[in-house]
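Input.
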Amino acid sequence: MPREVILFGLENDAAGEEPRALHLLAQGLAVRGHRVTLAGVLPAAEPVRHVADPAYDLVTLYDRRPGRLLRDGRGRLRRARAEMARRFEAARGGHVVIASPGASDWLRHVPAPGLSRIGRCARSYRQARLDPAHLRIIRRDYPGMARSVFLTEEDARAFAAERLPNTAAIPDPLAFYPAEPAALARPRVLGVGPLTWRARFDLLIGAFAAAAGRVDEVWELHLIGEGPWEERLRALALHLGVADRVAFRGRARDLARECAEASIVAVTGEFGGPPPALPEAAAYGVPAVSFDGPGGIRSLVAHDRTGVLVPPSDEDAFAGALTRLMRDRALRLRMGSRAREHVSHLRLERVLDRWEELFEEIER
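Output.
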């Protein structure tokens, strides 16, 4: 049954996991026959085209980025909210999926009669607790939603313990699920994330340097991302004697290709949700070495089956896990095959099924 669906975020044409997921959902639902609008507040400073030929309507309420929303005029803010109220009125009987607590806060005073509100949160429970403002919005707004959707069952249960009565778990979809897995023959470790403290690439470079010295084959570490830590990380690689083996690649232009050319994906940071590129690498059958912890890691990496989990911040253990996989391609292939199957439920069609089932539950 075709439905009116509005997906609402703050910066939908920005780079990042959340905008990408919103565009994939919008396109998938539209292709299935739903009338979909992807609405956002601000244009990104550096816009990214997430879908080549959108089958959904795209709306951006502000035509340019103000220094601060209110500095640009309360009148513009009122007009933007009035525009969303009109769109909500026109979509009566449908659903609005609110991408984040920040988006919910922006919509707080926008009426949506006849629409079911579904609050989404891509952050793990632990990350939300570290941000008091974020958690306050969830506690204030999400109990009144038709559903509160989190990315993992673990996080849905944790938020339910916060007296949230309406939790559900639906993961973000994969951008791709290739017909064939990667060969895992190229001696390359892949790390994806911002070049900031959050990704902890300093630990990854240290672990890689130790592991690279233990194996005969000449391995490389490719870091995908941008940020203020680049010079610091380059200096560390030089100090550890692996400057010629650590490639700083900048922003990913083709994540699928990066995953296909890797043999190990490494996760040293703690992110708000699932780490960047980990599910996509698994779809290519690339095994992971990751620090254990929250944020969906255990839902994506089954220890000693699809990859290796090591204690948080234990650089020596991380180096040992890298060494083990670097030395043994047969082990990489076995773990990678299981990793590929492990994330098959993240294929777009299966995630769309989950969303349609959720809509049906709400409508009953």
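Residues 74-90 form the longest helix (17 residues).
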